[in-house]
């Protein structure tokens, strides 16, 4: 179980980004964090991973205070994070990155993970994680870096961004299966209705606070009501005539 | 050979014992072992120090190793090596120089290498430079490589200097004829107060000739590096220069690529970038469980691979 107690975080120029957030994430549950841009969702995830140090408050993983642990130590305790905008690495191949992720020296490490994200291992394992990968390909590789690990809590920051609609269905299926088989807590930051639908619980973050949390049936109806744009325009265009 | 010599040989030529195929091993300014094969002849030059390596036309899948090791202080070694690679041959040439300087005086090796790559021949050339030693004496390597590739010839040059060489000035010149293709990959890591300079001039003279120059370097601590890669196109040709450097600590890196087109159908491109390791790269690898130091080493290793 991951527990945040009274977490505050100030960004550049001392702007308050997270304001006194207390949150408990139960084992093996599937959470989706949603809310407007700039509301603090990514910062919250980065505070959990240890990339940002909170200005106040404590974080506990299975009862252990991990507030002062760095990114490496948190990773080794089973926290994983897929970046919204993953970095590129000249000279490091997709296969090598997945080997580093899984901690395995085997050349075949990562094959299954690539298949899971819809990339053919034969085509991609030897490719460098450099500018030759498209944004969508890079994003899928980033997601794959979390799939081969034994994690207690896997956090994905807007995994759908940059991934084409045709692969998107497969990806949501991957998240569903992954969650069912891995016995981990899954946290996805997303605006996508199809990802929201996967959640056991939805957490609405806005203005640096948890505004509301609850079962998806109740919260989704409210979110959809409040915001006409919650469905991606393209997605609507595929199913309806309204954009034609 | 003693342990130091064996270690250096392994660093520069990947050799544990005497190699298969043709070889020439030079130690402290003198040849200590030479073997020719039926297809590859190695013979000493008569007018100056150095060797001629003659690869018979059509020789396939053979290799030549010509490592140089220096284990004494105060050695100043200058050699002229010429490689004639016959028509249609396909060979691997492994050169390289390692200096273990135990004393206070400068030890230096300047290798002047000439390559004549005949019609349709293919060559892979690997040159590794390495330095070590406890003494205050500097380790200096100033290689000069001159290459001519005839019609339909192909050559890959891999020039590597990772750690230990105090000062290097490398010059590389190449002329490419019709349909000839050259790839030069240079990888360099300097540290301490080392200085490295690399100047290259590749002339694309023949129709449909093509060249790529790829330079990857890491400059650490107080070291300095200067790159002058130049491509000149005199016919319908393609050329690409790519200079990439990671800069760290208090190092200085200058990259001055030049492309010159003397023909309307010459397509030449250069790219150059210098920057430090991005913070997100380190954090990403840390989030996979690597320490900050391991993350940095992994990034540098990949970059210089």
Q: What's this, in brief?
A:
Chain A is of the alpha/beta class and 244 residues long.
Q: Main beta sheet of chain A, described?
A: 6 strands, mixed
CATH architecture classification of chain A? 3-Layer(aba) Sandwich
Assembly category: heterodimer
Q: Can you count the helices of chain B?
A: 3
Shape of chain A: globular
Report the structural category of chain B. Answer: mainly beta
Stretches of chain A where pLDDT is under 50 for at least 5 consecutive residues are: 236-244
The number of strands of chain B is 22
Distance between the termini of chain B: 30 Å
Greatest chain-chain interface?
A-B, 23 and 22 residues
Count the E strands of chain A: 10
What string, H for helix and E for strand, traces the elements of chain B in order? HEEEEEEEEEEEEEEEEEEEEEEHH
Helical content band of chain A: 25-40%
Would you kindly provide a written description of the structure presented here, covering whatever features stand out?
The complex is a heterodimer of chains A (244) and B (305). Chain A has 244 residues and is α/β, with parallel strands linked by helices. Chain A has helices at 41-49, 71-76, 94-102, 111-116, 121-124, 135-147, 165-182, 193-196, 216-226, 233-239; strands at residues 2-10, 16-25, 30-34, 56-61, 64-65, 79-82, 153-157, 185-189, 201-206, 209-215. Chain A has a single domain (2-217), classed as Rossmann fold (3-Layer(aba) Sandwich), CATH 3.40.50. Chain A is built from ten helices and ten strands. Chain B has one domain (3-278). In chain B, strands 1, 2, 5, 6, 8, 10, 13, 15, 17, 19 and 22 form an eleven-stranded mixed β-sheet that branches. Chain B starts with a helix and ends with a helix. Chains A and B meet through helix 2 and helix 3 of A and helix 2 and helix 3 of B.
Keywords:
heterodimer, A: 244 residues, Rossmann fold, 6-stranded mixed beta sheet, 10 helices, 24% strand, globular, B: 305 residues, 11-stranded mixed beta sheet, 3 helices
